[in-house]
Amino acid sequence: MGTSPKSSRDPLEFRKPESSSVPEPEPPPREDAEQLYEELRELILAPEQQALKELHHRVDDPASRTEDVGSVVAEAIQLRRKQGGDQALSAALTPTIETALRESVRSDPHTLADALFPVMGPAIRRSILETLRSFLESFNQVLDQSLSVKGLKWRLEALRTGRTFTEVALLHSLVFRVEQVFLIHKKTGLPLGHAVAPAVAMQDPGLVSGMLSAIQDFVRDSFHTPQEQGINRMNVGDLDVWIEQGPYAILACVIRGIAPRDLRDRMAEVLENVHRDYPEQLDAYDGDSSPFARVNSQLARCLEHRYREEAQPRGFGFAYAAGVLLILVLAGWFGWRAVQYARWERLVSAFREQPGYVITSFGRENGKFLLRGMRDPLAADPAQIIGASGVNPASGEFHWGGYYALDDSIMQQRAAALLAPPLGAKLQVKDGVLHVSGSASANWVRETQSKALLLPGIRAVQFAPELEPDRLAFAQAKATVEGAVIRFPLASAALSSSELASIRILAENMQSLVIAARVLHRDVAFQVVGHTDSTGAETSNLNLSQRRADRVAWDLGRNGIPEKLLHAQGVGITQPLRNEATEADREFNRSATFQVMVTDH
Amino acid sequence: MLQKKICMLGSFAVGKTSLVRRFVESIYSDVYQTTVGVKIDKKNVQVNGAELSLVLWDIYGEDDYQKMRWTYLRGASGYLLVADGTRKTTLEKAFQLEQRVREEVGAIPFVFVINKCDLLPDWEVDPALESQIAAKNWNVLRSSAKTGEGVEEAFALLARKMLG
Q1: Dist CA B99 CA B103 (whole Å)
Q2: Contact assessment for residue A572 and residue A532, using Cβ atoms and an 8 Å cutoff
Q3: Integer Cα distance of A463 and A447 in angstroms
Q4: Among all residues of chain B, which has the CA nearest to that of A191?
Q5: Which residues have a Cβ under 8 Å from the Cβ of A188 and sit 6 or more positions away?
């Protein structure tokens, strides 16, 4: 630096006279010259120096430098892409972009979420749809497998043909087998891998892969579907081709029969694994299959050794047996319950029909039958009714309240208890009317007539004709009259005073009988019959007996019995009261007896 | 094992299918071409002692190439551009096809095959056209599906170009 001003000055000094010879006549002193030189330099070099300074400033100052680069950065990137430096540019930018994305998410996840929203929606929808479709498909299959109509048909066929069920099931569409698996490079349609089930006639994987790709392209092209979508399934008869789409490769399974839906999951899993294991190789694939040498073992997982014909008949058989057992158990249980219930129902109606019972409620509570009602104390023993119905008393509970039943049979019992009928009498209640029949004393009848109406529910008492009090009184009076015997001394028609007293009573009875007969619209007449013992002559006896009858009739007439009602007749010994074995018998036969003759009006 | 997807391109009836029929293994009938628009065949060739498996996409070529399914070209490592020497228009179409391929998938290796050299007297390739072809600096081969001439060479050349 020290020499440069000098060396640069010299030529200037040398040239100076030429350039400044006209304006300045004489050279200035040395110091002035220095100053002048500086001025001159400034005059000449100032613009360049200024430009240089600005340049320095632009280069040194980060702000202005940023400004410069900023104005051309987009064009620079475009230019770089045009020059074919895409990959290097991407590689350079990737870490920054990744960091930027991470930073963006950390500071405010919403920004990125909002930006991705239009993309995520369809992706999620597609995923959900796919899941739903898988679910439905497997659901259908479960239905297929468990609905036993087909299974029963096969079982019948097995029975008919004598084959095992497994055999029959195998013969039908149960078998499925993944015969071939292709891993196909999406862009070139070339096979990356190929797995074949044993003993399967296979075609050249290159050709098949190509054609599969071509068909995919064809469909996409023809129907304008997006690039990332494609055929998922092709079906011809019992041959199915299932295809899973990945970003770089597709996986195709050739399936004979009906495969379960979970094979699809398996395929997706295998395809994902392939993409995970060979990301760069897939991207950069150029026909060299050597990096994918081991991919076939991954594909073999899709060959599905889980054959359906092995699993299903077993599962089906078990399910079938279990189903039948379940049905039997259920049927048994329901049957038993039905029987129980029917018995209880019968018991309830038995109680309902039983006099002296009222059922107020019947139902089940806590697994037990519960019967509530009312019972007349005179009704039949409930235990007896329960026992007859076959119901287990322990399976239910009974609650009885007390009441007075108005059922005829119950009222009949109650009447019997109250009225204590004599053995010959019969009580019967019908529609609230107490019917009394048979034989009984007039007293009892009288009592019954007044007491029976005190019984609740008894609205009337109906005596049988023979027990009507009037008739009864008549009969009784008649019997009294006809039971009377008047005694006479031996061979005489005279009466002792006691006999005369008896005749007075008899006359009263006869009067009563006449009255009783009149109530019944009857007329009575009395036959007075005279008797003798067997001693003496017959004619005299007949005579004596006539006298005796006349004597009594006369006395009865004296006691108020109209003469026209009395017929005296001696019968001698023809109608003895007793066979004469002793003196007492003979004494007894020396008498007069009475018969009542009744005529209706 | 190395495998490559290659395409057969060319106008209708230039003999693409006939060209390869005797030399490839095929499981698909020609019907595919008119239905799906492509027929896939395979040809194994030896290149420098290594075996290369060529999967041929024989794309149905209509006279109006616009209707060709260009998606079939995706992922191809090379192609045979086939023209019929007896029909000048097919050569012109081939020029257009080549240009279109470059637009669609970029500059990938190809071999220009002018077919039907067994009918050489009938060829419509005039000197002007010949010089036009020469100016393009392409790999050009004459072939005959009938005699088999040039077919193996065409595949071998394409294979070498793809690997080189």
Answers
A1: 6
A2: yes
A3: 12
A4: B3
A5: A213, A285, A287, B4, B5, B74, B75, B76, B77
B62 — pLDDT class (breaks 50, 70, 90): low
Enter the pTM of the model: 0.42
User: Which residue in chain B is spatially nearest to A283 when comparing CA positions?
Assistant: B75
- Full set of structural domains in chain A with CATH: 4-60 (no CATH), 176-306 (3.30.450.70), 333-402 (3.30.300), 408-463 (3.30.1340), 471-600 (3.30.1330.60)
| Residue A536 region by backbone torsions, left for phi larger than 0, else alpha for psi between -120 and 50, else beta | left
CB contact set of A178 (below 8 Å; sequence gap of 6+): A197, A253, A254, A255, A259, A263, A302, A303, A304
Residue from the list B3, B36, B75 with its beta carbon closest to the beta carbon of A218: B36
Give the closest of B3, B25, B37 to A190, CB-based: B3
**How many independent structural domains does chain B possess?**
1
Residues of A in contact with B4 (CB under 8 A): 188, 190, 287
Burial A397-427 (b: 16+ CB within 10 A, else e): ebebeeeebbbbbbbbbbbbeebebeeebeb
What confidence tens digit (pLDDT) does each residue in A365-404 have?
887 888 899 999 888 888 888 888 888 888 888 899 998 8
* pLDDT tens by residue, A234-272: 887 777 899 998 888 999 999 887 788 888 888 998 998
Containing A83, the helix (H) or strand (E) segment is: none
**ipTM of the predicted structure?**
0.82
**Distance from chain centroid for Cα A450:** 63
CA distance A192 to chain B (A): 10
Please tell me if residue B76 touches chain A, with a CB cutoff of 8 Å. Answer: yes
What CATH number did the domain enclosing B105 receive? 3.40.50.300
